[in-house]
Amino acid sequence: QVQLVESGGGLVQAGGSLRLSCAASGRTFSNYAMGWFRQAPGKEREFVAAIRWSGESTLYTDSVKGRFTISRDSAKNTMYLQMNSLRREDTAVYYCAARLGRVAELTSQYRHWGQGTQVTVSS
User: Fold this and answer.
1) What CA dihedral angle connects 108, 112, 117 and 122, to 10 degrees?
2) Pick from 90, 16, 17: which is nearest to 49 by CA?
3) By C-alpha distance, which of 8, 49, 41, 4 is closest to 26?
4) How far is CA 15 from the centre of its chain?
5) 31-50 pLDDT, tens per residue?
6) Which of 11, 59, 79, 107 is the most exposed place for a label (fewest CB within 10 A)?
7) What is the maximal distance between C-alpha atoms in the chain?
8) Which of 38, 23, 22, 51 is closest to 86 using CA atoms?
9) Angle (nearest 5°) at CA 13 between 85 and 116
């Protein structure tokens, strides 16, 4: 059974940085893609970034390109989201997700989800 546990959220000032972690367990993830999604109050969950566990491909939504970096450490079975130059509009609960196959952007394409970690960016 796949388990995903996010950590690293918190309160940060605009322009600051945070690094989110997603600890994955329960499977060998070599054929998986992992993604980060976020959901702000009153809004739908949206795609942020994704990576093939093998590392050969990544995908970002336009609003975070150049500011966020997705990566993974296979030895630790952990995925990361380094978030720099944070903006108030990045405030949301951030979720880690996993799916078999290629990177994807739709929430419906991911089968496994973590519980989320809150990121709050203040002005």
Assistant:
1) -20
2) 90
3) 4
4) 19
5) 999 999 999 999 999 999 99
6) 11
7) 41
8) 38
9) 80
> Residue for token digits 């605009």?
14
Hey, which bits of 1-123 come out as E strands? 3-7, 10-13, 18-25, 32-39, 46-52, 58-60, 68-73, 78-83, 92-100, 112-113, 117-122
- Return d(Cα 73, Cα 98) in angstroms, integer: 15
Question: Of the candidates 78, 22, 30, which has an alpha carbon nearest to the alpha carbon of residue 54?
Answer: 30
Query: 């997705």: which residue's tokens?
Result: 70
pLDDT tens readout for residues 48-92: 999 999 878 999 999 999 999 999 999 999 999 999 999 999 999
